[in-house]
Design brief:
9 strands, two-stranded antiparallel ribbon, alpha/beta, 9 helices, seven-stranded parallel β-sheet
Length: 266
């Protein structure tokens, strides 16, 4: 299972500290939403080398489990080896309107393993679910916008995952918490009814806001979410990363088709 985090400078903790904490809590990986936190790297999962061809040193270790050496602090492959979790480079696009969102998606899609687009209004929510280059519609209920069956069908057809941000469950109180949970329940009904893909996150901006997978599942279950459905949402981040990495590998030709021993480049 994976957690999608905000790291420094967007968040309050470095990628290294997030990775160390996530490993201790039992996560398989973290998705780093902050574009500036990591150097984008295209990783062939069949090797231990990144796009630059630099070999990863599996013996490297940090003394306190939270600080990476300066030359490795922005390298997701090296950080993953250092802390024992998959560190996924991502970008979270927060645009004002679909036009600017489209330009940002075009710029960042080739460079990042996971592309998230922050929704929250009707126009951005619609743009995100109709754009196959977007992996995740983040926080679709955060603003004035809504989510309906038309958007759920588009998300399903285009393979865009809808995010369920459980952060308010852990960090809000009173009316804000009640309203956020009501929105999440409504969103779940629509997404589940039309079998749209989903991801689950606590949306941590600090390693202190990370919660172990069992805590996330237990808290969500306590407010009415199916535990297995929550686990699927936590695991879907890793599936998105694996899909992108496969498509970037030299063996990939098309979905379900890979270059084998008898194929040659034309």
């Amino acid at each position: 299972m994976y957690e999608a985090v905000h790291a420094h400078p967007d968040g309050d903790a470095t990628v290294a500290r997030h990775a160390a904490t996530a490993a201790r809590y039992g996560y398989d990986g973290i998705v780093v939403r902050t574009r500036e936190a990591l150097d984008p790297v295209r990783v062939d999962p069949g090797t231990d080398r990144g796009e630059t061809g630099d070999a990863v040193d599996p013996t490297a270790d940090a003394a306190d489990g939270a600080q990476a050496s300066p030359d490795r602090a922005r390298d997701p492959v090296a950080l993953g080896e250092e802390y024992g979790v998959d560190v996924v480079d991502a970008v979270e696009i927060d645009a004002d309107d679909p036009t600017s969102a489209s330009g940002s998606v075009g710029n960042y899609r080739p460079e990042h393993t996971v592309v998230c687009l922050v929704g929250g209004d009707d126009a951005l929510n619609r743009f995100a679910v109709e754009e196959p280059r977007v992996d995740v519609l983040a926080r679709p209920m955060a603003g004035s916008g809504g989510f309906n069956h038309v958007l759920a069908k588009a998300a399903r057809d285009n393979g865009v995952h809808v995010e369920f941000d459980l952060g308010p469950l852990f960090r809000e109180t009173g009316g804000k918490r009640v309203r956020a949970l009501a929105d999440l329940r409504k969103l779940r009904e629509i997404v589940a009814a039309y079998d749209a893909p989903h991801v689950v996150s606590a949306n941590a901006a600090s390693h202190l806001e990370l919660r172990a997978p069992r805590e996330v599942v237990a808290a969500a279950e306590a407010v009415g979410f199916d535990p297995e459905w929550v686990r699927e949402g936590l695991g879907a981040w890793g599936e998105i990363a694996a899909r992108t990495r496969e498509r970037r590998s030299e063996a990939f030709i098309a979905p379900g088709v890979r270059r084998g021993r008898y194929e040659e480049d034309g």
